[in-house]
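thought: fold this chain, then report.
action: predict
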Amino acid sequence: MIKVINIKEGIYPDVATFLLVREIELAKLSDVNAIIAIHGYGSHGTGGEIKLEVERQLKLLKSGKQIVDFVKGEQWSENHKIYENLTQLEPELILHPHLANLNAGVTLVWVKK
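observation:
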């Protein structure tokens, strides 16, 4: 299952990353295998800060083996190293509207079970 969360609207970067980590922990206890975090891409200022903080936090979670991996929306394609394995697990990611057109305003998180 895929869960979409919006962490860009009217919050600070540290709150956004707190919400993302909480959703990852909840996903581990459910049937959610992937989270699409909508964080914006910085066109209005704060989206860029949230995007940077999300990436920093996910790097820490990956290095601590708390998630399998993550990919920025603008890098999501058939050529990405996790594409094949993750789309086999969640085929609807192939045509998911939030991942279309190399969307720089989202990040996809592969949740570790």
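thought: worth noting. The mean pLDDT is 91.
final: tokens above.
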